[in-house]
Input
Amino acid sequence: MKENTLYIALEQSILVDDPCITIGDISSIFCKDKTVDKRVRELQVTHLPSTTKAQLVVTVLKLIEIIQTEFENLSIETIGNSETIVYYDSGRKKGTFKQNTRVILLMLISFFGTAFSIMSYNQDSGTRGLLESLYTLFTGESPDILTTGLALGIICYCLGLTIGMIIFFNHGINKKLTDDPTPLQVQMRLYEQDVNKCIVIDSSRHKKTLDVN
Output
């Protein structure tokens, strides 16, 4: 590896909380010359407007242009993505009352929405009738009312459904049961990749990408 070679890598997206964006904020930098390494990290890319949230697509060519303005003879090697999406959120470290209220509201909507969906599924599939048929099969009695045995069967069904969902989504109370990503995490990452690709394309079409002139 050459001593005057700078290696720069971009992630697909990155979140920052400072409107003054430097190269070190949005990329991984490595150079044997630690003076060059430190100086490159401090080079300013842009300064975002003083808003609460914003997003900007920055290409690696723009970073190379900025670096070579400061270091003309520096060799630069790029690794990874050709552009990155910079998400700016000035309040991401501050747990405000408004943000906490939104989280609680979202949790309530998810809880009652999921409960309603499960109840609707049970109603459509005739789960109560199936449990009654099983009760009659094992006891020989027809449950005209909610007997103790039928109630016990319903409770066991509810517990089994809960345990099955926990195992399937790979989450316990406070931690994951295994190191594997959950199905929900996989789908969220796929969704995030699709969103990032869409943002890059739209930004390029509307000439909003921070690129070389």
About this structure: Residues 95-125 form one domain.
